[in-house]
Write a structure and sequence with these properties.
alpha/beta, D-Maltodextrin-Binding Protein, domain 2, six-stranded mixed β-sheet, 38% helix, globular
């Protein structure tokens, strides 16, 4: 209930029945302030059931329920489940008059199969009203899944970036823009440091526990070839490996043992390093004044980068589709995006100003993440899709090609032909169609 102050005007007219005939009639007006209780309009978007493959661990799920979703104007029921269970349930309910989920939250790779079975609602109208949220256009396009309809809306992301010790800034190549580096700038930066100090200060996570395959799949390959799979063994890929060979002479030789680059940055074994944001964060947290975060560099074809995109979608048979749309709007609010960052560890998919209570290290990474996603030259390269339980094989193919060429000195053309054949076999046997940045394909993705 709300209390509203009103003015109660009481007019007392003496001799009301005789006043009309008497000029001396006295009129007294009394103004009194009183409080009146009225009912405020209550907004309630009803029950909204969320199936999510993210924030599934108990601690994260509790943070979703108790913090991230706490201010939604309705009743949010958060149900965490594995991807295969979510897909099976949505597909099984697709023919039913009414499904059980209003909202789906999952990685990009979950949605192609759901779209193929025509189970998702077109959210184009909703997306058109969210332009001010600042979702990068490249991410919006990914949510269309190669169509002209918006099947999911990006809600959060993780990715890979560069980190650098500020001591390295003295050796930047002339004219280099720290927020818009090229791959040649990275090579020349390492060269300048080596010539001045005698030390190889570039670092990559090329050890057994490192994520070097993501560097290859999502960064250097797209930057030089425009694709990940289709141009694996072509002339552009050969030129790319020639460049990597040239750059590698300035890379710390211990990189073949590195897993998490934050350790080498803190020890100053390297000054400039590439890795996943989660594997760099301790350097930024422990010594935020010593390090800067950098967007991925640009190559001849553009700025290749690998966002781990989490999208939010609505099944066609959602019991509460209007409530579902309000939930999407709620999830994209600045405060909710900040809660997701603090509690779940994913970076915002929207353009937000980080509040003061976000640590300097997280803010530094977040700024770099936002800059590379918003680049007009951005080439988002998704995690491999459609390979099922054989997903690890594609990572091995990329790593084996790198090791044979760059570490062991193998002939580029010969190695690419051999590993390209392995890649082609994998795609044919799994029937996996192309995924971004490669153009859509009918059937297995071709390897040119």
């Amino acid at each position: 209930m709300k209390k509203l102050k009103v003015l109660l005007i009481l007019t007392i007219i003496a001799g009301v029945f005789l006043a009309a005939c008497q000029p001396e009639t006295i009129v007294e007006t009394v103004v009194e302030e009183v409080e009146v209780e009225v009912s405020a309009e209550v907004v309630d978007y009803g029950d909204v059931v969320i199936y999510s493959t993210q924030a599934v661990p108990v601690e994260e799920a509790e943070k979703m329920r108790g913090i991230v979703l706490a201010d939604f104007l309705g009743t949010a029921e958060f149900v965490g489940m594995e991807e295969i269970n979510l897909m099976d349930r949505v597909l099984a309910e697709a023919e039913a008059a009414e499904g059980s989920a209003d909202v789906l939250i999952s990685l990009h790779g979950t949605y192609p199969n759901l779209v193929a079975d025509d189970t998702l609602m077109d959210l184009s109208d909703l997306m058109s009203g969210l332009q001010d949220a600042g979702i990068p256009p490249a991410f919006v396009e990914l949510g269309k899944l190669g169509t002209d309809k918006q099947y999911y809306i990006p809600v959060m992301q993780a990715t890979y970036i560069f980190a650098a010790n500020k001591a390295a800034l003295d050796y930047l190549p002339d004219g280099a823009d720290i927020d818009a580096l090229t791959w040649e700038d990275i090579r020349d930066w390492g060269k300048n440091i080596f010539e001045a100090t005698g030390e190889k200060k570039l670092g990559f996570p090329a050890g057994d526990g490192g994520l070097m395959h993501r560097f290859l799949e999502g960064y250097i390959y797209p930057s030089y070839t425009g694709g990940m799979v289709s141009e694996f063994r072509g002339d552009k890929a050969a030129a790319m490996f020639e460049f990597v060979n040239d750059m590698w002479q300035y890379v710390n030789p211990q990189s073949v043992t590195y897993s998490f680059m934050q350790e080498q940055l803190l020890s100053e074994e390297v000054w400039v390093a590439f890795d996943h944001t989660a594997r760099l964060i301790n350097a930024f947290k422990e010594k935020p004044e010593d390090f800067i975060a950098l967007p991925a560099p640009t190559g001849p074809e553009g700025l290749g980068f690998m966002p781990v995109i989490v999208g939010i979608a609505v099944p066609k048979n959602a019991p509460n589709p209007e409530g579902a749309k309000e939930m999407i709007k709620y999830m994209l609010q600045d405060q909710t995006q900040v809660h997701i960052l603090r509690e779940i560890g994913f970076f915002p998919a929207t353009s937000i100003d980080f509040p003061g209570f976000i640590s300097a290290g997280v803010k530094a990474e977040g700024d770099a993440v936002a800059k590379q996603a918003a680049s007009p030259d951005a080439i988002p390269s998704l995690l491999p899709v459609g390979l099922g339980e054989r997903g690890g094989e594609i990572n091995k193919i990329f790593r084996d090609a790198f090791t044979s060429i760059v570490i062991d000195g193998g002939d580029i053309t010969t190695v690419l032909a051999a590993e390209g054949a392995n890649l082609e076999t994998l795609l044919i046997e799994t029937g996996a169609p192309c995924w971004p940045p490669d153009a859509p394909s009918e059937g297995a993705c071709p390897v040119h």
